[in-house]
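So, can you check this one?
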Amino acid sequence: MPESTTIRPRSKLFSRSGLFRRKSFEGPDEAGPGGLPRTMGLWQLVSLSLGGLVGAGVFSLAGVVANQQAGPGVMISFLIAIIASSAAALCYAEFAGLIPRAGSAYTYSYAALGEIAGWLIGWDLLLEYTAIVAVVAIAVSGYLSYVVEQVGLDLPSWMLGAPGTGPGHRVDLFAALLCLLLAFVLSRGSKQSARFETALVVIKLAIVALVVVAGAFHISAGNFSPFLPYGIGGAVAGAATTFFAVYGYDAMTAAAEESVEAKRLLPKAIIVSLAIAAVIYLLVSIVLVGMQRYDQIDVHSPFSSALAAVGLAGLGTVVAVGGILGITTSAFANMLAVSRIWFAMSRDGLLPRYFARTHPRRRVPTRVIWPVGIGSAVIAGFLPIKEAADLTNIGILAAFIVVSIAVVVLRRTRPDLPRSFRTPWVPFVPLVGVAFAVWLIANLDALTWLRFAAWMVLGLVVYAVFGFRNSVENPERKEP
């Protein structure tokens, strides 16, 4: 009688063994061979989150929204944005405590909604985070150029901006070099890069505190009237702009696998960092519009103009330095995030596993970090900031929607899972996050939608050709 053989049934495409197969919620508590070492404590995680949360919003957006949309009501704009962001943050906190592994929204959606959802969000975030790094680097370059001018140096025009941004501009050299510098720092190891980020965040917060305290002695009550010159609608519209300043915690969750006691500390880090950022943004708004009338604020250098208006022009250079540090920490957090998402997708087989190998000594994914650094440097060096910024918004909002929905779905499908943190008032809180993100996406221009659609179509092609068959969750996959 012939020996029987086991024949595995072919996967059905639209099933739990096909497009909707799911990543396990179980994962190692400690890094195995080739994994990421757990070295970050609570305050390093908080610093990484604050690196993304407190940046352009303090040094730029507050003044723009006050001048053009909300007047003194900019503090209401920030309050609305923080409430909306908090709804998504609470959903991220539940997942961070449930699945403390690299990948952030990619990993969460893969485990809760299935592989195709995880792939689409992961592919989306690869572009979004890389573009954010480039946008932030371009903004830092602008502050650096200002400081260089202040000390009397005359730099050649070819290195001061991307083609088309000014006479003689060929490349934004400062921005490109910053991207490469951040890649170098990240490649040194998790512990060293976390110390670098923490040091910059501490200096940045000290500068913000100095500016707020100095400005507080020059607040004039008359500058708060009229409080809503553009009506309540202006303050609500301003919330859409300020929202993009208060979602940096998502980048920190991508480094979940490098946190000690991750299930306990990650949710706490998200909540603590968002609370600190909320206080900072509200104080900054009050001081800014209190020092100078909203319609006289210079949108290009809000705090510098406001400080000059009250006789503190000497602090302008300090603000510029704070801007450089503040925005650099945001670039760092986002570059770390995209490198960890790429690493996680490669480890899961959806992208070539070549990229899932860590450096033998430093134990960081250098095979991913350097391509991200070079890619962001090319975007930063040769694209104007508006074109680079257009690549960023829709993808982050899509991730917020998916994570919020996934919390609701998982409460129904897996109520038994041990959760170290539970999002309160489900489904109300997640639905608030979804509604706000949908509203913002609906107001994006057609070109942004077109670029997003083109990138996602490319992603589906890559998944169909490579990811689906090479996924570690594919029951028919042949081990190399």
Remarks:
- The radius of gyration is 23 Å.
- The first helix runs from residue 42 to 53.
- DSSP finds 17 helices and no strands in the chain.
- The chain has one domain: 46-470.
